[in-house]
Each structure stands twice: as structure tokens, then as C-alpha cells.
Design a protein that fits this description.
The chain is built from two helices and no strands. By secondary structure, it is mainly α.
Length: 79
């Protein structure tokens, strides 16, 4: 599905590029598209940052659990 959407997007961008070369693409339309893409990019970046923060938090907790378990098991084997 993503491949299909990417191909459609690429085709659309090619057509818009051809229109721009012929001065047939309104500047306001291009500016509007740029604004929309910048907004979407910002949303995606925020989701990514949130997801990475959560994964880092989980990883830190798991490392802590691992360290506790290693110390605990080492102490039991030494007794």
C-alpha cells in the first residue's frame, strides 16, 4: 500500500514540476502545500520524539531490573 501511495505522490510531484516549468502552477498553491507538509513533518517529529522518550524510559527500567537481578543472583551464589 505504501508503495502505491508513494508512486502516486511521485507522479503528482512530477506533474506539478512540469507545470511549474511552464509557469502554470500558482505560487499560492505551492506555498500552501509547503505549509501543510511542514505542519505534518512537525507532527511526525513530535510523535517520534514521544515514542523515543517512552522507549528510552522502558529501556532504562529494564536495565535497572537486569542490574538488580544480576546483583541479587550473584549474592545468592556467593552464599
Amino acid at each position: 500500500m505504501n508503495t502505491f501511495i508513494k508512486k502516486i505522490l511521485d507522479w503528482t510531484m512530477e506533474k506539478e514540476e512540469e507545470m511549474a516549468k511552464k509557469c502554470a502552477l500558482p505560487m499560492k498553491e505551492v506555498e500552501h502545500q509547503i505549509t501543510k507538509i511542514e505542519e505534518e513533518k512537525k507532527k511526525v517529529q513530535e510523535k517520534y520524539d514521544d515514542a523515543m522518550q517512552e522507549l528510552n524510559h522502558v529501556l532504562e527500567r529494564l536495565e535497572k531490573i537486569k542490574n538488580i537481578e544480576v546483583l541479587r543472583c550473584q549474592n545468592k551464589s556467593q552464599e
